[in-house]
Amino acid sequence: MKYEKAQNILPQNIIELIQQYVDGSYLYIPRKSNSKKAWGEHSGIKNSLKKRNRNIFNKYKQGVSVKELAEQFYLTEYSIRRIIRKEKQGILSDS
Q: Are 49 and 57 in contact (CB under 8 A)?
C-alpha cells in the first residue's frame, strides 16, 4: 500500500473536516467491502503457494519422503503432511 497526499486527492473542505478528528496523523481508509481482494491476490503469493504445494505433492507421489520434503522446502514434517493431505482432498473433490 502506498501513501497518497490528501491535498492531491481530496477537496480542501474535506481535508479540513478530517483535520477536526485527526490532525497530522496517518489515517487508513479501508476499501469498500465489494472491492476487497482475497489474501494473496494482490501480491501473487497465493498462486506461488499453490504451485509449491502441488510440487510437494508430486514429489511425494514420486516417492520422496516427508522428512526429505521438509528439509528441501524448509518446512516442518507436520506442514508437509498437512499439504499432502489437502492436495489429496483436492484431487478427490475434483473427481
A: no
Report residue 2 CA to chain centroid gap: 17
d(CA 67, CA 59): 12
Domains of the chain plus CATH, in order, are 45-94 (1.10.10)
C-alpha–C-alpha distance, residues 21 and 9, integer Å: 18
- The alpha helices in 1-95, defined as continuous H runs, are 6-9, 12-19, 45-61, 66-73, 77-94
- Whether pTM > 0.85 for this model: the answer is no
pLDDT greater at residue 55 or residue 37: 55
- Let me know: does 87 contact 53? Beta carbons within 8 Å: yes
**81 CB burial (10 A radius; 0-12, 13-18, 19+):** middle
